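Can you please make up a protein's amino acid sequence together with its fold in C-alpha cell form to help me picture the idea?
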Amino acid sequence: MTDTRTLPQTALLDGVGLRRVLAVLCLTEITSWGILYYAFPVLSVSISADTGWSLPVIVAAFSLSQLAAALTGIPVGRIIDRFGPRAVMTAGSVLAVPALLVVAAAPNLPTFYAGWLAAGIAMGAVLSPPAFAALTRWYGDGYVKALMILTLAAGLASTVFAPLTAALVDRYDWRTTYLVLAAILAVITVPGHLLGLRGRWPHPPTPVGDHPVDHRDASRSRAFLALVIALSLGAFAAFAGVFNLVPLLIEQGFSPSLAALTLGLGGAGQVLGRLGYLPIAARTTARTRIVVILAATAASTALLGIASTTAALIGVAIGAGQVLGRLGYLPIAARTTARTRIVVILAATAASTALLGIASTTAALIGVAIGAGLIRGIFTLIQATAITDRWGATHYGRLNGLMSAPVVIVMALAPWAGTALSARTGSYAHAYLILAALAVVASLIGAASIPRHRRHDAATTT
C-alpha cells in the first residue's frame, strides 16, 4: 500500500528565508493577479468603446491568454519540481511587461491577440500554481499555513487593482492605463522574483511506505481524472458567475467605477474566506471539503441570477463571504477527509448557484451572496491542497500543473461561455440555474476523486 505521507523535511531556508520567500510571493501574486487578470474585466468595456471591436471578440483574446497559461503551466510545474521557482517566475515576469505593452499599443485585432497570447504564457509562469509549488516544497510540513497566507494576500489583488484600474481609465484611457500597469508590474515582480526567491531548492520529500507514489500512475488514475473533472466543472460554475459581474452591473445601470469597486470588494471577501481554511481543513476530510464547497457554489450561483437592483450589495456580500470561508478552512481540513471536502464543497457550490437564481429579496440575496463568497474563498484552497491531500508532495509541481491546466482552460472559457449562455437562455437567472446544475454534477464526481489507498483515511494528514 502506498502512503502519501512524507518524512519530515529539513528546510534549506531558515526562518528568515522562509518569511522572505512568503512575503515576496504575497506581494508579487497580488501585483500579477491584479494587473494581468483583474484589470481586464474593468477595461474590457472601454476597450470595446474605443476600438469598435465587439466585446465577445475582446473577451476571446483574454480567453486565449488563459488557454496559453494552462498549457504553459504543465512544463513550468516540471521545471519547478527539478530546479525551483526563481528562474521560471523571473522569466515570466520579464515576459509579462512587453506583452502588456503590445496590448496597450495594439492597432488591430491580430496584434491585440498576439499581446494576450504572450501575456498568457507569462501568466502560466507567475500566477498561483508556480507559487503553490514553491511554498509546498520549501515549507515542507507547514505548507498548508503558508498556502493559506499566500491565498489570503492574493485575494487582495482585485481589491487593490480593480479600483486603481478604474481610476486610471477614468483619468486617462485604457491604453495609458495598461502602460502604467506594465510599469508597476516591472518594478515589483521582476526584482521580487529575481532577488526574493533565492535559496537552495530542497530535494523532493520522501514518501513513507514501501511503494512511493509514481507521478505517471497518479496522473493516469481514475481518481485523478475525477478530481480534474470535478474541479473543472466547479471552477466553470464559479468563475462564469464572478467574471460576468461587472458587465451585469453596468447593464443594470451601475457606473463602471462602482462595478469595479464591487469586484474589488469581492477580493476582500476572498481574504476572509481563506483565513477560515486552516480550521476547516483540520476538522474535515478532503472528500468532505470538495463535495460541500462545490454544492455550496451551485446554490450561490443560482441565487446570483436574479441580482439586479441589489447587485452592488451582492458583490460586497460575496467578498465578505469569501473571507469568512477561508478563515474556516483549517478546522474543516482537520476534521474531514479529502473525499468529504471535495464532495461537500462542490455540492454546496451547486446549491448556492441555484439559490442565486431564485432569491427575490435583498436580504435573501445578501445572505446567499455571503455564502457564495465563503464557498469560493475555500475553493481556492481545496484546489491548492488537492494533490498533496491525495498523492503527497513529492511530485506536486508536475501533478499540480497537469491538474491545473484543464481548470485554467475552463476558467478561460467561463467569461465567454457565461455571456453566451445568458444570451442563449434569455436571462442571467436561467444561466445561473444551469451553472448550478453543473456544480451539482461536479460534487457527485468529486466523491470519486480519492485514490484507493486513501479511501479509508478518516482525515487528511495536513
Remarks:
- Residues 16 and 22 are 10 Å apart (CA to CA).
- The chain is about 80% helix and 0% strand.
- The domain at 214-462 is CATH 1.20.1250.20 (Growth Hormone; Chain: A;).
